[in-house]
Prior knowledge:
- Two copies of one chain form a homodimer.
- Chain A is α/β, with parallel strands linked by helices.
- The first copy, chain A, folds into two domains: 168 residues, Rossmann fold, CATH 3.40.50; 183 residues, Dehydroquinate synthase-like - alpha domain (Dehydroquinate synthase-like, alpha domain).
- Chain A is built from 16 helices and eight strands.
- In chain A, helix 8 packs antiparallel against helix 9 and helix 12 runs antiparallel to helix 14.
- The longest helix of chain A is centred in the middle third of the chain and has 21 residues.
- The first copy, chain A, is globular.
- The interface between A and B is medium-sized, with 21 and 21 residues.
- Strand 1 of chain A pairs antiparallel with strand 1 of chain B, so a sheet runs across the interface.
Amino acid sequence: xxxxxxxxxxxxxxxxxxxxxxxxxxxxxxxxxxxxxxxxxxxxxxxxxxxxxxxxxxxxxxxxxxxxxxxxxxxxxxxxxxxxxxxxxxxxxxxxxxxxxxxxxxxxxxxxxxxxxxxxxxxxxxxxxxxxxxxxxxxxxxxxxxxxxxxxxxxxxxxxxxxxxxxxxxxxxxxxxxxxxxxxxxxxxxxxxxxxxxxxxxxxxxxxxxxxxxxxxxxxxxxxxxxxxxxxxxxxxxxxxxxxxxxxxxxxxxxxxxxxxxxxxxxxxxxxxxxxxxxxxxxxxxxxxxxxxxxxxxxxxxxxxxxxxxxxxxxxxxxxxxxxxxxxxxxxxxxxxxxxxxxxxxxxxxxxxxxxxxxxxxxxxx
Amino acid sequence: xxxxxxxxxxxxxxxxxxxxxxxxxxxxxxxxxxxxxxxxxxxxxxxxxxxxxxxxxxxxxxxxxxxxxxxxxxxxxxxxxxxxxxxxxxxxxxxxxxxxxxxxxxxxxxxxxxxxxxxxxxxxxxxxxxxxxxxxxxxxxxxxxxxxxxxxxxxxxxxxxxxxxxxxxxxxxxxxxxxxxxxxxxxxxxxxxxxxxxxxxxxxxxxxxxxxxxxxxxxxxxxxxxxxxxxxxxxxxxxxxxxxxxxxxxxxxxxxxxxxxxxxxxxxxxxxxxxxxxxxxxxxxxxxxxxxxxxxxxxxxxxxxxxxxxxxxxxxxxxxxxxxxxxxxxxxxxxxxxxxxxxxxxxxxxxxxxxxxxxxxxxxxx
Lengths: 366, 366
């Protein structure tokens, strides 16, 4: 049994928002723009979205209060803003945080839901149409049915997973990523890489998701060595954004796996950036998988253009630099927490708690 | 600028209709089933669809009057049936003909359109949701926004191309293709091949369409030599259906090219099966392209697992057997007709009328 579903219309290229603006008119006459405090203003994406909306005489209101790892409370604030403004659709501009928040806001605008029901569904009332404008090349949220929010009740990140929150349109313009600081470019690229790698190692992998994952890994493999070698050209930025989108399409089908389960704890408890968290754990995670599925891991390193896992480790160590410190108690606590994550079940080799603890401990030389 | 849009949900695997039946309930409570006189009854597909609808208490009516290369008149009859029954969605079961007719019926059910406006749009009123169940592995219509109808006004086939007619759901169960006669299996596989090949040679090709085309060609290349060697196993049938779907996704983005333009004349005037028509012309078409784009054609033969175009010619000649006879006058007439086709403009090397005539003449040793 195979399923393929990817209803998001993807428009990409420099200037694509203005060029394809007319598509927005089909979604409504009032838009809530959801973004962070600064970056969308600095990188030109907010300006382009506003210009497109102005040209179509679509009224809009900007909700620019999204921080990294957005909370449920922020999403509820945004939903109130959407209701008060009478938004007919939402536009999320930013990294994963803004797009994920936009999705939750789209759900909450017309649905009164407690925290638990927000994550589980079902939603009795309509969900606002969503437009996604990624300004980093990493999360792939522009083409997924997931919204990842910080869930203080469970002390981790929790996901909404619903076909209702697939963005209707994703605009991919790599020029918005040109001024990203080097560590952000690295962390987000590693996030995209983890999506492609984990999709390939998911029990839900399909023929189509594997084609997309393979292409994504091949592109990221070529880009990785360039990321800390001075300014990236526009062509490389476009390739990274494209590979990140492909990896998003992959996890839309496969979900993520134990690597993300562990990464969420590092982010929640240690405030380590999401992509970086996955990157720090990736080598040991793949060693764990390789014990039972050497072929799959060899395929991955081959697609990345690397000889073996050691070469990947050297590359990631160089890019991610000095690691944070984790105590033995933390490794135990994080592995216990990761064991409860739903995405753990997607992993082709199911880890026990001890396996997770070992992966974390080895990754941080605990 | 790149665009990706593939909103059809694809469910595949043996028994997928019954397994995923619940999806149908979201489309409405009354369905018009659109199919041909015989094959859907014989191959089990109609039975499975009826069982699924019965289990959901969805009322249905069967319109089983679709022939090969369906006409506008047939589509109008179907639309009348849809209106009279009060259908809320349509289900096309069959080869390209039934699915293409279902799409036109879905448009015409609520839209009063003359022949010209049916092909050009726009449609003021809603288009009924469409479900597609392919019973051959060739047209890819289950995942395209095209409906190809015989257009006696223009003496050829004409296409509706509208995002409104992307099927909502496609059910791919290869068991319905198991009893196809050998020539039908061959002709439809060659049709799928022509979609993948032409998509690769289209000016509209994108990075994503090329990945899908490459995968489709690699699979079809492995299957081609088996097609006339006795019964195909279920696994091969599944691969053919999958490759045909991929090739459909390709042309949804790239359109078809001059090969289809010429093929339509062979079908309209000589009643040559659609896939076979493309197959008979394919070698000379590729020779024509290769003069200017040798790399692209080499890539294609490489993906097919063949050394060169001659090997493809030998393979196609063996599968398609004795060719029909075409006169010099016919070659002239068909090339003049093909020159007017819209899809001609998609070809990376634009042919003049003389080029088309030469391709047809050489293909049939005129």
